[in-house]
């Protein structure tokens, strides 16, 4: 499919299977419904409720250990809920509906199907060291989604343009700076045409002088595409720029949520005020 070279994310190709039906599914794109995550006796997420709407940019802020990364890891099925239900596109993600009408923990296959809607960029870029930039970006679309190679390469080039690395098509990861590698990782996540992009402290592992370039790329994506974003960041000015909603976490719960203006200018909760005064 031909895509607009300036904004390759604007037109999302229809996907196979459940993902296609989720395109039209009513309601929240992501829903955490009374989600509990425990490690032994340690309650990391405590009856957590929140929703993300299609096209919304939601940022999770809060002190270290408050559970932000765990939320993204649950969505990537790197962890399982201890209790409660996560829904994506209206479908239970962590559970399936049994013949008896009751929800039971979902199997790997169900989770993999729904996970196709989700792309994630981690702190560490984790590019394949033996592949060049183009191969890194096209590997999963071709081998996981079965996209035609020529089509995947055309899209990869458009995405490289979007992240400002058009001239690095044949470079290998070791020939790139950390910031450039992270921009390739962003392109790689977008190449899967996710409905939701998860960003987990994507600049934390970068040298300070490389942070701005990566954040500018993400600002551009946030402002010029309609992709849904769920972002964990310690970069407060970035959170302010891209978010529709900011969720302030403490001890596995949302203590306050609101627009960036509300949260950063007039935080209502004492815990938010304390956190912001420490980090701003
Ligand atoms: N595999 C694990 N086993 C035991 N405890 C864990 C595990 N993973 C995370 N935790 C604990 O869960 C809590 C929440 O961790 P999480 O990484 O979600 O916090 P966070 O808010 O993202 O913190 P940070 O801002 O430092 O990344 C922490 O107390 C952490 O030690």
UniProtKB/TrEMBL annotation:
Subcellular location, principal: membrane
Keywords carried by this UniProt record: Amino-acid transport, ATP-binding, Cell membrane, Membrane, Nucleotide-binding, Transport
Gene3D superfamilies per record: P-loop containing nucleotide triphosphate hydrolases
UniProt region (Disordered), positions on chain: 1-25
Topology versus the membrane: Peripheral membrane protein
Origin: domain of life: Bacteria
Family: Belongs to the ABC transporter superfamily.
Cellular component terms per the entry's GO annotation: plasma membrane
Matching PANTHER family: AMINO ACID IMPORT ATP-BINDING PROTEIN (PTHR43166), GLUTAMATE_ASPARTATE IMPORT ATP-BINDING PROTEIN GLTL (PTHR43166:SF9)
Subcellular location: Cell membrane
Organism: Streptomyces tsukubensis
Residue span, ABC transporter domain: 30-276
The protein's name in its UniProt record: Ectoine/hydroxyectoine ABC transporter ATP-binding protein EhuA
Pfam families per record: ABC_tran
